[in-house]
Amino acid sequence: MDAEAYREESRRRWEEASAGWEARRDAFQSGARPVSMWMVDHVNPQPGDTVLELAAGPGDTGLLAAELVAPTGRVLLTDVAEGMVAAARRRAEALGLRNVEARVMQAEWLDLPTASVDGVLCRYGYMLLVDPSAALRETRRVLRRGGRVALAAWAAPEDNPWMTGIFGPVAELGLAEPPDPEEPGPFTFAAPGRIEELLDEAGFEDVAVEQLDLTFAFGSTDEHFEHQRALSPRLTGLLASLSPADHTRLRDAVDERLAPYTAADGSVRLPGRTWVAAAAA
User: Fold this and answer.
1) What is the CATH number of the domain that holds 21?
2) Range of the domain at 45
3) Angle 221-231/233-241 helices, nearest 10 degrees?
4) Mean pLDDT for the chain?
């Protein structure tokens, strides 16, 4: 894998997906809010603290910390995509939060002084990086002694039908090449012990790792499909390349895959499972 080419391609994809993440914020956060709450609780922000969120997207997790650090503390929301940063900034303004800054920043090279923040949050970000070890070392560098990091990463594919309900049929129908196991992805940290290993290698202490079970609710399989299309830059590109016949084949296969989770009224409740972890610098 060409690391620099991957970084640029990833940045481009997330730039394209930023509008979808902003539009679908409430739908995703309704299922993922317990993850954000766990992370903020385990960073334990105090008034006057500085909290950094990496790969923040629209900033849903970091913004939960803004009131906790007020009035003298601040929250810095960062993402590699300018569109995500703009979405996070708009959300902070809509909530009337004046102690929030949003800035473009690469998680593997943090443009911040050493020992300058009290807590770091990264929900579903480290797993997508070319060099998560470097990002975690940078995280530890910018944390003050005793400061805490909290992160989240998806558990095994079979525990996440809300995501694999589409990507499973894509693979089974041969509509796309299988993901390169050497590339970052949503399940890069799924193996038990992987997160502990990375945190230990980066020099963190007091490591705690748990699993949380989640539920993502949608009004129909169509709504779920459009939700995933809006959030996933890979899926958006794939669907644009499909013929009408292959698109129909995929939709039929997805509906069949989701049938066990579909109620009589057509609504869908899909399970998910995530790792959450916290550690001290």
Assistant:
1) 3.40.50.150
2) 3-155+180-215+272-280
3) 110
4) 95
